[in-house]
Design goal:
It is built from 10 helices and 9 strands. By secondary structure, the protein is an alpha/beta fold. Helix 1 crosses helix 7. The two termini are 40 Å apart. The structure holds xanthosine-5'-monophosphate.
């Protein structure tokens, strides 16, 4: 029978043998998968694992600095690269969801490529790919039910890098990855983090992206997510986030009429993201969160809660 301890033991041994004293590059995202892959590889090859953590400017509020510190605290050999401007400039004026994804994928490859050239003599590229990523990208490229969205977790690096690929979590489901992470002693809060899409807030800002919109959505998202934690709801939800809608609506503030932005909150239960149900969050929580958002985030005067399941709706709005 499969156990996380046995998986760690055999995988670390395999990685040692496979990689020897060659250097490995790994892109950390702040998520569970890449973090577990990194710790596993670190256990096998130590400082020969070179981690790169890119800030694309589309992460949650304070995420880049907080997570970078956490990685450093775990003893990982990690370089934080703030490429926010490169991503946001590249996205300027773009409102098509798939083009936004492609732009982010392309800029990521450029930034990652630049950074990986700084690691002399690297032979390997490690990825935190898990089993559902493999399935989704297969159906995205050819299956009869070709998926609607292009995920950039799988592949996507330029051929000329010619690195050998190592994917230690490729056969695992998310819950198994979490168990492996626990067996490796990784912090519970990190392992329990909700999934977050690679393109980040770009696909939660419907339409074109500006720095101002990113800042607004980061505040809204922070109030929502912190609220879920404060109310003991965070761990009961598989994934949650806020969407900034391309809609202004009329409101009143004091004697003034306002015409401001609307945000949608989304929280879902799921096991693998392929199907999902909206979460029946307590009305008192929604009431408090809505008030906090409208009172504290300038530019937002309306909050709605998404009660659609997947299918037919998707988790993200783009
Ligand atoms: P959807 O919106 O397709 O999302 O129901 C299913 C899961 O995938 C995440 N997602 C993405 N992750 N790149 C990613 O790395 C993407 O382009 C992307 N689109 C959606 C989404 O957050 C959810 O967990």
């Amino acid at each position: 029978t499969w156990t996380p301890d046995a998986f760690v033991e055999t995988t670390v041994a395999d990685l040692k043998e496979k990689i020897g004293d060659e250097k490995v590059i790994l892109g950390l995202s702040g998520g569970v998968d890449s973090s577990v892959a990194a710790v596993l590889l670190h256990k096998a090859i130590g400082k020969n694992l070179h981690c790169i953590f890119v800030n694309n400017g589309l992460l949650r509020k304070n995420e880049f600095s907080a997570v970078l510190k956490q990685y450093e605290g775990m003893g990982l050999n990690v370089k934080g690269v703030d490429a926010s401007a490169r991503f946001l400039d590249g996205l300027e004026g773009e409102s098509d969801p798939e083009t936004k994804r492609k732009t982010i994928g392309r800029v990521f490859v450029e930034v990652f490529d630049d950074e990986s050239h700084l690691v002399e003599n690297a032979q390997w590229l490690a990825q935190g790919t898990i089993y559902p990523d493999v399935i989704e990208s297969v159906s995205a490229t050819g299956g009869p039910s070709a998926t609607i969205k292009s995920h950039h977790n799988v592949g996507g690096l330029p051929d000329y890098m010619k690195l050998k690929v190592v994917e230690p979590l490729k056969m695992l489901f998310k819950d198994e990855v979490r168990r492996v992470g626990a067996s490796l002693g990784i912090d519970k809060a990190l392992l329990g983090r909700h999934p977050f899409p690679g393109p980040g807030l770009a696909i939660r800002i419907l339409g074109d992206i500006t720095r101002e919109k990113v800042a607004i959505l980061q505040e809204v998202d922070h109030i929502f997510i912190q609220g879920l934690k404060d109310w003991g709801l965070y761990d009961k939800v598989w994934q949650a986030g806020a969407m900034l809608l391309p809609v202004n609506s009329v409101g009143v503030m004091g004697d003034e009429r306002t015409y401001e932005k609307c945000v949608a909150l989304r929280a879902v239960e799921s096991t693998d993201g392929m199907t999902a149900d909206w979460v029946n969050l307590p009305y008192e929580f929604l009431q408090k969160t809505s008030n906090d958002i409208i009172n504290k985030v300038p530019g937002v005067n309306r909050v709605v809660y998404d009660i659609s399941s997947k299918p037919p709706a998707t988790i993200e709005w783009e």
